[in-house]
Amino acid sequence: xxxxxxxxxxxxxxxxxxxxxxxxxxxxxxxxxxxxxxxxxxxxxxxxxxxxxxxxxxxxxxxxxxxxxxxxxxxxxxxxxxxxxxxxxxxxxxxxxxxxxxxxxxxxxxxxxxxxxxxxxxxxxxxxxxxxxxxxxxxxxxxxxxxxxxxxxxxxxxxxxxxxxxxxxxxxxxxxxxxxxxxxxxxxxxxxxxxxxxxxxxxxxxxxxxxxxxxxxxxxxxxxxxxxxxxxxxxxxxxxxxxxxxxxxxxxxxxxxxxxxxxxxxxxxxxxxxxxxxxxxxxxxxxxxxxxxxxxxxxxxxxxxxxxxxxxxxxxxxxxxxxxxxxxxxxxxxxxxxxxxxxxxxxxxxxxxxxxxxxxxxxxxxxxxxxxxxxxxxxxxxxxxxxxxxxxxxxxxxxxxxxxxxxxxxxxxxxxxxxxxxxxxxxxxxxxxxxxxxxxxxxxxxxxxxxxxx
Length: 454
Known about the structure:
Layout: H1 3-22, H2 28-34, H3 43-72, H4 74-92, H5 98-111, H6 114-125, H7 131-160, H8 162-183, H9 191-194, H10 201-205, H11 210-239, H12 245-274, H13 276-293, H14 300-314, H15 317-328, H16 334-362, H17 366-386, H18 395-398, H19 404-453
């Protein structure tokens, strides 16, 4: 398949995936309270448990699904994940109690893996000089879905109830499943990869640069989800009243998403030209400084402007990290590598809300923005100082660098080829010597016959 066709199809799939998720998650506390009968005294407990359990299960399962993506096929894992997520959304619209919803979220954690499998499939088709722009487009699609989801979810919830949103989200995942079955082909493996064993996670984790990428993306996701639970409350503090708070908060949230959708492909193209290491450090630093500055405004308008700018910075982090993972791995390893990356993000996503809630309990909300910004700047500084030199160069300088085991394998193959050539030459020489001796023997026999006749 042409890589542009694959990118276009998978971009549409990712928009549906992200929109279906975000049209439900922001309204989950309301769903628990209004339709599942959660006690107001235990509502926060149920909300936290239902959010956290999916992240926790997904963090455990993501590496397993990643390895299966490499061994069983990327298309198959997309179909597995999208169909199972569709089932969880359908069950979510049928549950009657918070406990039932808790078990549905456990199943959703097992079903997860659609995003890393999608990245692995797109990367298998993408030319090496287009990795940056493709990862930027995929990230932009993810962000666009995150913008559209809450808007559609809010309208549907007001008009038909939240249960209807679950059924529509299930329909969106069924569409992804059918599109993948009928329009996407499993990327072919190179001959040398067909019989090669899949790498172990220990080998991948020891790959130069990969642990640092996992560290950076995991903590970044922690910062994102550290801020989300308190954002609405802080916007209410800046306004001084709670009139239309949900609507205003949604608009402020969407500003960073709009900025991210615009900037993600630009970051990807820039990373392709100057190096993804530089764009990763730059975007981490920019996002950190801008988030820390959100500590300063006392009114909503400058805070909202900074929120838009924060989206410009954040949108370069994950495309750069994804592109670096692609450059550090072979197609045989990408499912496993993206599974590890997704797991790191899920761990950060599970920890972030807990830390944010703890900080908000003892200090004012504004200070969380300053702390979050400082964390991102420290991540950027750590990446800058600790990232191995092998992955700091431009893509064209590091693109052809391969893992050590691949180099060793090539050396062995080359040595075997040279030995085979030497043996072939020796056999050829031996055959030539035999032919010369046979000719000499024939000549000697002929001479003897001539002498006998004389």
